[in-house]
Amino acid sequence: MTASDSRPLLGEAGLLSIDDGDIYVCQGGVADGPVLLLIHGSASSTRSWDALVPLLVGSHRVIRVDLLGHGRSAKPVDASYTVPEQAHRVGAVLDRLGVDRVVVVGHSSGGVVATALASQRPELVAGLVLIGTGPGLDAFIAPQTEPLGLSSWPPSDEQLRRFAGTAFSRAGYRIPSEILDDVRRMSPHTLAAAMQGTLDYLARQALPERLTPLGKPLLVLFGEEDRRWRPSSAADYRVVPGAKVELLAGLGHSPILEDPPRTAVPLLAFAALHSVRMD
């Protein structure tokens, strides 16, 4: 696909034009299957799901998006990168694709966007899976490494690996170079604005408080060795009626990369209960 206003077909990828920029979308799987929407975290992209997607496409239509400012999507300097705006864009993409019911899976801050989407479009979201998504700011673990130097962009591979290291349970995990490249494609402005947008949203209200009145089925997956968000904070989600919380032993903040098969098992079981097949 080359035209920015083309519609990505199943098994293809391309750009969809919405009001404030082009959004990169890729799809795969069963054309008329129940839909899973995957939303990446800050300083990431659709590529963060590459190892997990092959385990999902046999039974579902899987849609991934690069949020505005990330990956292969547009990176306008004059756009808003708040969580509600990002969620609104995701909803617009699903409308363009003709999707009217979806289980939304968010990793890290992607789970914050997923929560906002469920708040904005409750009729669209059949269920939520939050993977390594901190429930509130009091669960955040302050990084021990130096932040990325936004004044001397782009950063080197070594700087990026130090920055991303806490996303994994063990030192020395070899982060795929494609993911590092996508961080480098961000601008300092979009990176800082997107991360601040997440912090602002959590500061206003914790996610369990936002999710409780929605009445949506909820699965929370957390690595027991998460170094970004306090693993014990996963229990905060138990106040949401019917929520299922599962801790993954030996895994860190990014089980979707560290152990895709172990991540896929509870995800698919949840999706089988709450997904709706497309007509």
Written account of the structure:
The structure is a single chain. 30% of the residues lie in helices and 18% in strands. Helix 1 crosses helix 2. The chain has 8 helices and 8 strands; from the N terminus they run ββββαβαβααααββαα. The protein has a single domain, classed as Rossmann fold.
Radius of gyration, CA atoms, in whole angstroms: 17 Å
Which regions have little confidence, pLDDT < 50, spanning 5+ residues? 1-5
Order of helices and strands: EEEEHEHEHHHHEEHH
- CATH class, named Alpha Beta
CATH topology call = Rossmann fold
What gap, in angstroms, lies between the N and C termini? 25 Å
Oligomer: single chain
Given the helix and strand composition, which structural class is it? alpha/beta
Instruction: Name the strands of the widest sheet in spatial order.
Output: 1-2-4-3-5-6-7-8
Q: Can you count the helices?
A: 8
Please outline what is shown here.
The protein has 279 residues and is α/β, with parallel strands linked by helices. The protein has helices spanning 83-96, 109-120, 157-164, 177-185, 188-204, 207-211, 255-258, 260-274, and strands spanning 13-18, 21-29, 35-39, 61-65, 102-107, 125-131, 218-223, 244-248.
